[in-house]
TrEMBL record:
Residues 234-279 have a biased composition (Acidic residues). Transmembrane segments: none annotated. This is Tetratricopeptide repeat protein. Residues 298-307 have a biased composition (Basic and acidic residues). InterPro entries: TPR-like_helical_dom_sf (IPR011990). SUPFAM superfamilies: TPR-like. It comes from Saccharopolyspora spinosa. Residues 234-322 are annotated as: Disordered.
Length: 322
């Protein structure tokens, strides 16, 4: 655990502190980062300590805010992230701030943040996250159809597989379900499950729950087919092709095994004979090289060429045997 483990921007900000204090604050920030997954409460204690010692450092306030958010201390997280944004400028963590407002029962403020002047400054991933939070806030306000419409953007494309796709598809499905549009919700849960390589959502479980409500296997199969067609995914073709590949592979593997069993002894004999031949040839070349020592340069090069050819032949024999 070293101060050097911190991001370079944080270390640059800490340089404004006295050396001993900067090192101590850095160590507590590193500890907070290392403990957040396993011991979040202790991580927050370290982040708070750093904040107490360096309250004028934007990165320290940001770290405290993010740690508090992960622990569920919404009010503290919001205050710290606001302070960090005031000191450093820029849009900050608008999606997290909006989520804190929503968690504290103030969805209207979450919607306001999504409309703030800073929102257009967010990069694409953070903008999508803010849109997801704002859609949830609108649903909290009873504006269910508005929550659905607010997510209908260019990023809502099942053919795209971006880092945020699974969460966006899942949020859209969840809002469709809240609006009573179960068949459409099922389709988008399918898209979310396909995009969710990191197990960020419980889309698979939601699909199981919806399957029973929608009328059983026949209806589900129809919806899955439609969803896969929209995303240009055809699991049936894939499974069929995979089965053919597996079958061909198994047949070829069996033939290889048979050939190997039949020829194993012959290969070993041939290999040993070839090794003996190459060894004798190498010995002969060595004797010849010794007899012609002191000859002119042309004869010496010829002897070396013979030895090289013998080595190459030996390697070729090994490669054929393998």
């Amino acid at each position: 655990m070293e101060p050097g483990d911190l991001d370079i921007e944080i270390r640059r900000e800490l340089l404004t502190l006295p050396k001993g204090l900067a090192d101590k604050v850095a160590l507590h920030l590193v500890a907070a980062g290392q403990l957040i997954d396993s011991e979040p409460e202790r991580a927050l204690e370290h982040a708070r300590y750093a904040r107490q010692r360096a309250p004028r450092i934007p990165s320290v306030r940001e770290a405290n805010g993010l740690t508090a958010y992960l622990v569920g201390e919404w009010n503290e997280a919001l205050a710290e992230l606001r302070a960090a944004r005031r000191m450093a400028g820029g849009p900050g963590h608008l999606a997290i701030m909006a989520d804190c407002e929503r968690a504290m029962g103030r969805p209207e403020r979450a919607v306001e943040l999504s409309r703030s002047e800073e929102a257009p400054q967010l990069d694409q991933e953070d903008a999508v996250e803010l849109r997801i939070v704002a859609a949830g806030a609108r649903r909290d306000l009873g504006e269910v159809e508005a929550s659905v419409v607010s997510l209908q953007t260019a990023e809502l494309d099942p053919k795209r597989q971006e880092p945020w796709s699974a969460r966006l598809f899942y949020a859209y499905a969840d809002n469709l379900l809240a609006a009573g549009r179960e068949r459409e919700a099922f389709t988008w849960f399918v898209h979310a499950a396909h995009a969710d390589d990191e197990d960020e959502t419980d889309a698979a479980e939601r699909l199981e729950e919806l399957a029973e409500k929608l009328g059983g296997p026949d209806v589900v199969e129809e919806l899955v087919t439609e969803a896969e067609a929209a995303a240009e995914i055809d699991d049936e073709d894939f499974d069929g092709e995979s089965a053919e590949i597996d079958e061909d592979f198994d047949d070829e593997a069996a033939e290889i095994d048979d050939d190997f069993d039949d020829d194993a002894v012959d290969v070993d004999v041939d290999l040993n004979e070839e090794i003996d031949e190459q060894s004798e040839a190498a010995s002969a070349d060595s004797e010849k090289a010794a007899e012609t020592e002191g000859a002119d340069e042309t004869s010496e090069k010829a002897a070396k060429s013979d030895a090289t050819d013998a080595d190459a032949s030996n390697e070729e024999g090994d490669a054929r045997a393998q």
